[in-house]
Amino acid sequence: MVLGVLYHALLFGGGMMAMGFGGSPTAASRIMDWLHSFRMPAFFLISGFFSHMMLVKYGFGRYLLRRYWRIALPLVIVLFVLGGIRAWRGSAGFPGTGPGQWGNVAGGGPGSFQFGPRPGGTTNGWSPGQRQAGASFDFSGFMGQSSPIAQKLFGGFSRNLGLQHLWFLCYLLVFATVAPVVTQAIALLARGPRGDALNRAADWMLRRGFAPLALALTSIIGLVLSGASAGNPPGGMRTIMGSFPDVLFRYDPDWPYFFIYFLGGWWMYHFREGLPAVGRLWFPVFLIGFGAYVASAALTGPDAFAFMPAPQRISEATLARYALFSVAVAFTVFGFIGCFQRHLNRPTWTGRYLADTAFWIYLVHQDLLNMVVLRWVRPWGMPQLIQAVVAVAITTAIALVTFELVIRPTPLTNLFGPPRRKKAPATIPTRVSTEMAPL
C-alpha cells in the first residue's frame, strides 16, 4: 500500500506521459512501471495468507463477518465521503471530471488525456502509433462504462462514485468470499494419496525455492484471460473506471490473474513452516525477478510502458513474453517477502505503527495527491522523481495527522485502524496466601 502512494505520485505527477501516452520513458517512469508490475500481486498474495489465517482462527461464519466489516463497510464509507468532497470541489479524484472522463493535468479538456505536446485527434482503442505525440485518448469511449444502477439511485452524484484506487477492496471482497469455497472444492477433488503427494510436492517447492516458478507459470493463465498487453500487468480498468454499486455486479477479466496470487498466499499459510526457507533464498530470488523484468521490458520494447490493455493475438511470442513477465513478478514478490521474513521478522514500534496506519493512508492518498498536494508541489519545478518523493512525504504526513485526530480516538479505528481491545477486568483474589512459593 505504501508503494502505491509513490506509484500514484509518479503517475499523476507526469508519469502517464511516458508510461502509456507517448514520449520516451524516463528513469522515474521506469521505476513507476516496475513498482506497478508487482505491488498489487504482492498485496493479494499477502491478503490471501492472512485471510486463510483468519478462517482457521474464527471459522467460516465469523471469518465472513469480519471480512465484510473490514472491507465492504470501509469501501462504502470512504467512497461516499470522498464522493461528497469531489462534488464539493468539482473534481472526481482523477485529474478530470468523473469516472471515464479524464482531463489533462497539464491543461487538456475533459474526456481526454493528451499524451503529446501538440493537440491532435481523438482515438478509441490502442496501438503504438496512437501513443505518438499529437494524439489524445478518449477514456470514456475506450471504457464504455455505463452505471444504470448508480444513476438510478444517486442521479448526477453517481459521477463522483467511481471506485478509482479503491478497486482493490472490490476485488478483495470477491476473493475473500469465494476462496473458502474454491479451496474446499480443490481439497475434495485431491483427497487421499493424490492429495498427500500434492501437499508434499508443494511443501518441497516452497522450501527449495521453486514456489515462485510454480506461481509464475500458473499466473500466465490469468494474464491470457485478462487480455493485458504482453509485458504489462492487468490494470483493473473496468472496475477502476466503474461506479458503485454497478461494479459489484460486473465481472472484470483481471480477476483470475489476481485471484491466482490470492490463492498463492492462501496456500502459503498452509505451508507456513517453510517460510524461513523463503527468507534464506530471498536475494537470489529477487535478482532473478528483477533480471526477468529488465529482460521483459527490453523484449517488449515501446509497449513496455503501455497504460491501456488491448485485445491480444495469442502467439508463441506473446506467450513467451507473458511467461517472462510472470517470472519477473512472482520472483520479485517472493524476493520482497523473503527479505522481510529474513531481516524484519520481529516486532518494532515503526512496523506496528505502519501496519496500523497503512490502510488509512492508502484510502485517502489519491484524492489528497490530486486535489491538494500535487497542486502545491508542481509549480516548484522539481524533477519528477524528487517531486514524487516530496509529494509522498506531504501526503503521508497529512494522512497521519487525520488518522491521529479522526480515526484513532474514535470508534472509526475499528474499521480503519487497529481494533480497540476490551480491557480485561481486574481480578480480586478471594484469599491471600501467606505461604512462600517454592523457588
Walkthrough of the structure:
This protein has a 3-stranded mixed β-sheet, with no helix packed on it. A two-stranded antiparallel ribbon has the order 1-2. The longest helix is centred in the N-terminal third of the chain and has 44 residues, at 27-70. It has helices at 2-19, 27-70, 72-89, 139-143, 148-154, 167-189, 193-208, 211-226, 237-240, 255-270, 275-280, 282-300, 316-343, 349-377, 384-407, 413-416, and strands at residues 96-98, 101-102, 113-114, 122-123, 136-137. The protein has one domain (2-101, 155-416). Helices cover 63% and strands 3% of the residues. The chain contains 16 helices and 5 strands. It has 439 residues and is mainly alpha-helical.
Describe what is shown at a glance:
The chain is built from 16 helices and 5 strands. With 439 residues, the chain is mostly helical. It has one domain.
Mean pLDDT: 79
Q: Name the structural class.
A: mainly alpha
The Rg value, from CA coordinates, equals 23 Å
Distance from N terminus to C terminus (CA atoms, Å) equals 51 Å
Q: Tell me, what's the shape?
A: globular
Largest sheet: number of strands, sense, barrel closure: 3 strands, mixed
Q: Helix tally?
A: 16
